[in-house]
Amino acid sequence: MVEKLPPEVQQAAQELEELQERYLAIVNQRTIIESEISEIKRVLEHLKELPEGYKVFKNIGNVLFEESKEKVIKELSEKLELDELLLDRYRKEEQSLKTQIQTLQEKLKDMIAKHYQSLATKEKKTITGS
Question: What is the pLDDT of residue 122?
Answer without folding.
Answer: 76
